[in-house]
Design brief:
This protein has 393 residues and is of the alpha/beta class. A hairpin with a 4-residue loop joins strand 15 and strand 16. Helix 11 runs parallel beside helix 12 and helix 11 runs parallel beside helix 13. The longest helix is centred in the first third of the chain and has 22 residues. The chain is globular, with a radius of gyration of 22 Å. It binds beta-D-galactopyranose (GAL).
Length: 393
């Protein structure tokens, strides 16, 4: 009887942790990450003040709940292999408790290699130990960044010239290993793969429990880089869905090197892509324009739509682009983009997207109902501008 109870209890625990794992990231994850603004200077105080600002600015209530510490928190391992933090992060458990006390979630960063991209301690050979440590700190999100594991992949390639997939197999096994270690903790920890889209991550990421995976190399705070990444996502929509998302990298809105129209393009494209929305700015210094872009409820609702469909390109004509994203209730979100250096008119034919009898059209950024329109719908866009529409029957 006792044995039966133990077995059934174990079954219940593993079934509930499996359920918890499946429930993670039903919509694209939202939050803040330290890297794009603070990079290797980030400290415990910066992360606490980001958590405070998420609450006071209204970002948390708009959906931005993960507070993610990126690279450079790591210290050295002790004789037992336990990883310690460096002096910038005196107490991760206390930091996690602080973040949780604000109704937020706590994210961290590591690498399958021996070193992270910043040259700090990675998880190679310590995967289970690190996963348990994260769980003991109350971690809810792990970004796992390839970095020095690329050296191991090169070695595998040299050792197995007969196998063109040797390097990728090793990489996938390394990501699987940490995926298993996270699951074994019993704590739902969102698993975010960062290996720059190598070997078409979107094809194998979901099978090993990844909730999101980077599809490209790093973004930076420039219009050129942001659109190169954003528009290169065409064709990837079929690989995203509830629990598993393509990640075209974190947001740069608010970091200051793009115009308001360019940041509007950034947000418009990312919500149409059902991309994870991880703000990467200094939240204590947001302008009204940054807040308007990051916290527009209708734009966020497009990203977070319960249908969980990523948008894709409808057509491209030179520097003009039109993207659509299916939404729940038979609605469709449409993005117009003008990448040119002049003001340009961009149009969509509603018949082409199934609205043969016209549609109610709402302009999200202008917060304006445009009425019941049919046939061709157009807007005039400034240089590098974007328009975001929702059409419904
Ligand atoms: C890069 C990664 C960035 C950031 C950085 C930290 O590889 O793409 O998002 O995490 O490493 O060193």
């Amino acid at each position: 009887m006792r044995r039966f109870l133990t077995v059934s209890c174990l079954f219940l625990i593993s079934a509930s942790s499996l359920f918890a794992q499946q429930k993670t990231a039903l919509t694209p994850p939202m939050g803040w990450n330290s890297w794009n603004h603070f990079a290797d200077h980030v400290t415990d105080a910066d992360v606490r003040s980001a958590a405070d600002a998420l609450v006071s600015s209204g970002m948390r209530d708009a959906g931005y709940v993960y507070v993610n510490v990126d690279d450079t928190w790591e210290g050295k391992r002790d004789a037992q292999g336990v990883l310690h933090t460096n002096s910038k992060f005196p107490n991760m458990k206390a930091l996690g408790d602080y973040i949780h006390s604000k109704g937020l979630k706590f994210g961290i960063y590591s690498s399958p290699g021996s070193k992270t991209c910043g040259g700090y301690e990675g998880s190679l050979g310590h995967e289970e130990q690190d996963a348990k440590l994260y769980a003991s700190w109350g971690i809810d999100f792990l970004k796992y960044d390839l970095c020095s594991f690329e050296d191991k992949m090169k070695e595998a390639e040299a050792q197995h010239p007969e196998d063109p997939n040797a390097a990728n197999k090793l990489m996938i096994a390394a990501y699987q290993k940490m995926g298993n270690a996270l699951k074994a903790t019993g704590r739902p920890i969102l698993y975010s793969l960062c290996q720059y889209g190598l070997d078409q991550t979107w094809k194998w990421g979901p099978a090993l429990g990844a909730n999101m995976w980077r599809t490209t190399d790093d973004i930076n705070d420039s219009y050129g880089r942001m659109i190169a990444i954003g528009f290169s996502q065409a064709g990837l929509s079929k690989y995203a869905g509830p629990g598993h998302w393509n990640d075209p990298d974190m947001l740069e809105i608010g970091n200051g090197k793009m115009t308001e129209d360019e940041y509007r393009t950034h947000m418009t494209l990312w919500v149409l892509l059902a991309a994870p929305l991880l703000a990467g700015n200094d939240l204590s210094k947001m302008t009204e324009s940054d807040k308007r872009l990051l916290m527009n409820k209708e734009a966020i609702a497009i990203d977070q739509d319960q249908l969980g469909k990523q948008g894709d390109r409808l057509y491209e004509s030179g520097d003009l682009d039109v993207w659509t994203k299916p939404l729940s209730g038979g609605r469709v979100a449409i993005g117009f983009f003008n990448r040119s250096w002049s003001t340009r008119k961009v149009s969509v034919d509603l018949n082409q997207i199934g609205f043969n009898h016209g549609a109610n059209v709402r302009d999200v950024w202008k917060a304006k109902d445009l009425g019941h329109l049919s046939g061709i719908v157009s807007d005039t866009l400034p240089t590098h501008g974007a328009t975001l529409l929702i059409v419904s029957r």
